[in-house]
Design brief:
Layout: E1 2-8, H1 10-18, E2 30-36, E3 39-45, H2 53-60, E4 64-72, E5 88-92, E6 95-102, H3 123-138, H4 145-159, E7 166-170, E8 175-178, E9 184-189, E10 194-196, E11 203-205, E12 215-220, E13 231-232, E14 238-242, E15 245-246
Antiparallel strand pairs: 1-4, 1-12, 2-3, 2-4, 5-6, 6-7, 7-8, 8-14, 9-12, 9-13, 10-11, 14-15
Length: about 250
């Protein structure tokens, strides 16, 4: 999620969490990170999100954030364990960088690393560490969002031939998305209406919980609601969300 004001994500998370072992097969752990300024508040659990007490807590605990990244895992590389749950987080240039990936990247562990090393055994975390190392080698300080966008597009373009690369990444300013298989998104803004989840018997009238100036963008592998018009991000390109809107590009 990307928003222009701190926003409650519990509605979307309620539907997403059901896909972790109830309405979907991604039962091998889950995690979520909420940005607060330069920091990120993270929760992880190797249990299926549909059965997780931590997930139940978050459905009832209001955490407001402008950028949120959540991931439900279906293990293919690396055992089911806490250290292998996404999203992964590292510090670079005094900011928390958060990364989540769906897909397999054959041969990615042959790519050299530097200052950043995986804690777990997934190809995803190796790709994240490689990406950060390449950024650190390219820039001496935190680059502008535009310069970072250009470099990330190049780096993800190098990773994409290795397999399926559906990625969400943030450094707390923007939400970056890259996909080689469809990712769906929706932008919500005034006039707000009602929405009902696909995976849970839950609906909300956004007009009752927003202001006319609010903007919220949600990205997901598949649409989370049944009565909204979700769009598909372009394949093989980096998409950037800032303050609840997809940046032109």
């Amino acid at each position: 999620m990307s928003a222009n004001v701190p926003t409650d994500v519990r509605f979307s998370f309620a539907g997403l969490a059901r896909r972790g072992g109830a309405t979907g097969p991604h039962r091998d752990g889950w995690g979520i990170s909420f940005y607060e300024g330069r920091g990120a508040r993270a929760f992880h659990d190797p249990r299926p999100s549909a059965d997780s007490e931590i997930a139940r807590l978050l459905r009832n605990y209001e955490v407001q954030s402008k950028i949120v990244i959540a991931h439900m895992r279906r293990a293919n590389r690396g055992r089911v364990s806490l250290e292998n749950t996404h999203p992964f987080t590292r510090e670079l240039w005094g900011r928390a960088w958060t990364f989540a990936h769906n897909g397999q990247l054959k041969g990615v562990k042959k790519l050299p690393l530097g200052a950043f090393h995986p804690i777990g055994g997934t190809d995803s975390e190796h790709a994240f560490c490689w990406t950060l190392e390449r950024l650190r080698a390219r820039f001496t300080t935190l680059p502008s969002p535009r310069a970072l966008e250009i470099e990330l597009a190049k780096l993800f373009g190098e990773l994409a031939p290795l397999g399926v690369l559906n990625v969400l990444l943030s450094e707390g300013r923007c939400l970056y998305a890259y996909c080689t298989k469809p990712l769906h998104y929706i932008e919500r803004r005034a006039p707000f209406g009602r929405a009902a989840l696909i995976d849970e018997d839950l609906q909300v009238d956004f007009s009752q919980v927003t202001t006319p100036n609010d903007r919220v963008a949600v990205v997901a592998s598949a649409p989370l609601t049944r009565d909204e018009s979700w769009l598909v991000l372009p394949l093989g390109r980096l998409s950037v969300f800032a303050d609840g809107a997809l940046a032109p590009g």
